[in-house]
Design a protein that fits this description.
Elements: H1 3-32, E1 38-42, E2 46-53, H2 66-90, H3 96-119, E3 122-128, H4 141-158, H5 164-195
Antiparallel strand pairs: 1-2, 2-3
Helix pairs in contact: 1-3, 2-3, 3-4
């Protein structure tokens, strides 16, 4: 199997895991919890709560009319998917970690986009209570995949190593410089011997 096909295999395997998990967990919540119903899992820390978000992250653009809000999120979601696929195509075969990250982000993006098509809003249910009584905005598995995928992409770019080709190209250039210096020294020595 070629390196190129392995890159796509890592992407497809990640996508095939993240999207079904996201949709299965949301269906499980919708089937078992009424809207607004809460199950305390870890007191004062973690609950399962069936809520819905018609807007974006942190309820962004919730106040917009349904038509404009849906059009905006469906349009930006489709555009983001296209960008991710273009980015995946441009990855070199060895960038498997980036391929995994793109698979996670795409799985999450399509998961939330599917909610908007099915329900007109996104299903959220992971409800965490933080220190000092602060309540983190309820989220879902798709959000987890997107955050993890973006974090991996950022780390991969931050710790990206210098391509081996550049160091290989620098070595011959340095050798040529040394060779030129050596021939120059030899020429000067030969001319001084001639003068004597």
């Amino acid at each position: 199997m070629s390196s190129l096909s392995r890159k796509y295999l890592y992407f497809l395997a990640t996508f095939a895991i993240t999207l079904p998990i996201d949709q299965w967990t949301k269906d499980w919540i919708v089937d078992r919890f009424a809207y607004g119903e809460m199950l305390v899992v870890i007191p004062d820390f973690f609950n399962l709560t069936h809520v819905r978000n018609p807007g974006g992250a942190f309820s962004l653009l919730t106040s917009l009319p349904d038509f404009w809000r849906q059009g905006f999120f469906l349009g930006t979601g489709a555009f983001a998917i296209i960008l991710l696929l273009v980015f995946l195509r441009r990855l070199v075969p060895e960038e498997r970690l980036s391929a995994i990250a793109i698979g996670a982000v795409l799985g999450g993006a399509i998961g939330n986009l599917t909610d908007r098509v099915r329900y007109g809003e996104v299903i959220d249910f992971l409800d965490f209570r933080l220190f000092g009584g602060y309540i983190w905005p309820t989220f879902n598995m798709a959000d987890c995949w997107i955050v993890c995928g973006v974090a991996i992409l950022m780390l991969d770019v931050f710790f990206e190593r210098e391509p081996a080709g550049e160091s290989d190209e620098a070595a011959p250039a340095a050798s040529e410089d040394h060779a030129g210096e050596a021939s120059g020294h030899a020429g000067r020595e030969g001319s001084s011997e001639y003068r004597t």
